[in-house]
What does this fold into?
Amino acid sequence: MRFSLHRGCPLAFALLAGLAAASVGLGLLASTASAAPVYTSPQTLSPAGLLNAYGPQVAIDGSDRATITWYRSDGTNSRIQAVRLAADGTPGPVQTLSDAGQSALFPEVAIDGSDRPTITSYRSDGTNNRIQSVRAEITNPETTITSGPFGPTKNASPSFAFTDEAAGTTFECSLDSEPFSPCSSPKSYSKLPEGRHSFEVRASDSDGTDPTPAERGFTVDTKLEGSATAKSTQKQQGKKIKVKVRVKAGEKLTAKATGKIKVGRKSYKLKPQIKSLGSGQSKGLKLKPKKSKDAKRIIKDLKQGKAAKAKLTLKLTDRAGNGKSKQLPVKLRR
It folds into this structure.
């Protein structure tokens, strides 16, 4: 909670003094006797180091938080101070609301429908008394998720870290729209089922609760859905060497094919091929020798009846990071 000063509004001191006197003069109506309330132990709100404090005033907002204001001397002049207590009675920092230079006296506090306290007082400008007011600008906490999965993940036991800049902040977490419950950073989960999930976290402090919780959507995916095949014998025609592979994807994935061709003791590397596939797609990859002169040599060897064998390695990777590798042997012939 931060107060901002609204200056001006010169009014006669007599008016404010008369209102104060009238409020003091009001008596409490008699009520039916009831059990005596139980009070907490006293806590000192005005800080040490200055002189006497006077005239405390209190107002309660819609969230059961009390704003208390008073005036006290700084050794030369009287200053207006205020503090807000959380619903459990924990006090926040004491703030001095009036400037140094001339005395400010008799603060009054009221709270509007948005739980913002406004404190008025009168203060001398050296010649006359002037009315001043301050209003607290309430800033809701802003929650930020600093780490954790986003989108597809192969981690079924994720952990999320989060923060808020304000001191004294507490947090509540929710997974998959379950009710919010107290939590601390990092928040971990274990053995989540496959599929989509959402994580939410919101911060709370003496000013309230974050109305827009931070959120992360993620999908637990621990299994790759895809396959790769190749005909065990492939006929080579013309002047080119092509080794073909067929990849089928059950989800978005990337396929990378590498390999080599052996003819007798000679080995020829194939140029790697990479393709991206969408869910349900099927694509072919054609691997060729990295050097054109190698293709000529392999064709020559095949024409002479020599045996040529390709050894292929297919690696499939999905967006969650799941991987699958497969070895595919292929015989080449003319």
About this structure: The two ends are 84 Å apart (CA to CA). Residues 5-30 have pLDDT under 50 and may be disordered. Residues 13-25 form the longest helix (13 residues).
